Amino acid sequence: MKHSPSIKGSFVALVVFLVGCHSAQYTEGVRKENYNHLEISLMRDVEDGRLDMPFEQACLIASGVDTGKKMQAYLTKINLLISRINHETDINRTSDSLTKAEIIFDWLQKNANEGVYNDCYDFRDTLNLKVGNCLSYAIRFTIICRHFGVGIKNVFIPGHIYNILTSNGQTRYFEHTHSDGIVKNADKGHPQKKMMRDEELIAEIFLYKARNANNDMNYEESCKYCRWALMCNPHDNRAVILLLDNYIAKKNYEVAFQYLNDYLSLHPDDKKYFKNIYALLQRLYKKEDDKI
């Protein structure tokens, strides 16, 4: 079968985004995509699987902030929220983390939540328009809580994110998408719930962008964001599924098969889950090969 330059580039991207290699291969991966300097800084930061830059900056870059001037403008918006909470609440009169978290949550609900929209993942919209979904609202809450020394955690269940805080033997849950702010019992006890790392929250932003690009049939753009999501969270098979869908839509079965094959070599426990799509891609790959 013919091997085009795009396949080589895809393999470079695969190694960079799924394994986390360095230097020459990493630089080659950057050249294949037209990233701005802030995106490159984020890529290099999470290359080792750990986020070192400030969380709020990473969220803004993932959402689309592409210049230092814009970054400073959004950081100013965050600082303004913090300043208002300082001046409009009694948060500085307590040292209790649970009380602080509740003060922050209540203030945001009353003063900075104008609506919940399922696809409003963009952190910029949450700062500009006071709208969001479970992801963007949880990100804002996390950033502000941390400023006040509150170690809030983000909880993921399929299709949803909420916050949790445990302090001095007590636990509080925070739900941003229900008017009463109460996390459902089913969500609290969901068998697939997990605590999220900051890198995984960044990955969720990229996954939203990848889905939207896929829906618009912008498959190359969707592939880019899938790889970004996998770089931040290499164990998320949702991004792999979407990546495969993009390549299948482009009838690039060879690259799709190679991506899946390499992913399964790193995640053998997922072989059963991908059994049918693996067999399909294998047949399509062989069919294309037979034409040559």
Describe the structure.
The chain has 292 residues and is of the alpha+beta class. Helices cover 62% and strands 8% of the residues. The chain is built from 14 helices and six strands. The strands form two sheets. The chain has a four-stranded antiparallel sheet, with helices on one face. A two-stranded parallel sheet has the order 1-2. It is globular, with a radius of gyration of 21 Å. The termini are close together. Mean pLDDT is 88; it is low at 1-31.
Tag the structure with descriptive keywords.
292 residues; alpha+beta; four-stranded antiparallel beta sheet; two-stranded parallel ribbon; 6 strands; 62% helix; globular
Concise description?
The chain is of the alpha+beta class and 292 residues long. It has helices at 5-19, 23-32, 37-46, 55-63, 68-88, 97-111, 123-129, 134-147, 185-188, 198-215, 219-232, 237-249, 253-266, 275-291, and strands spanning 115-116, 131-132, 153-157, 160-167, 170-174, 194-195.
H-E string: HHHHHHEHEHEEEHEHHHHH
Secondary structure tally: strands: 6
Strand content: 5-15%
Q: Structural class from helices and strands?
A: alpha+beta
Binned, the helix content reads 55-70%
Instruction: Determine the mean pLDDT.
Output: 88
- Strand neighbour order, sheet with most strands: 5-4-3-6
Query: Given the structure, what is the number of helices?
Result: 14
Cα-atom radius of gyration: 21 Å
Instruction: State the low-pLDDT regions, or none.
Output: 1-31
- Regarding quaternary structure, how should these chains be classified? single chain
N-to-C terminal Cα separation, in Å?
Answer: 6 Å
Give the CA-based shape.
Answer: globular
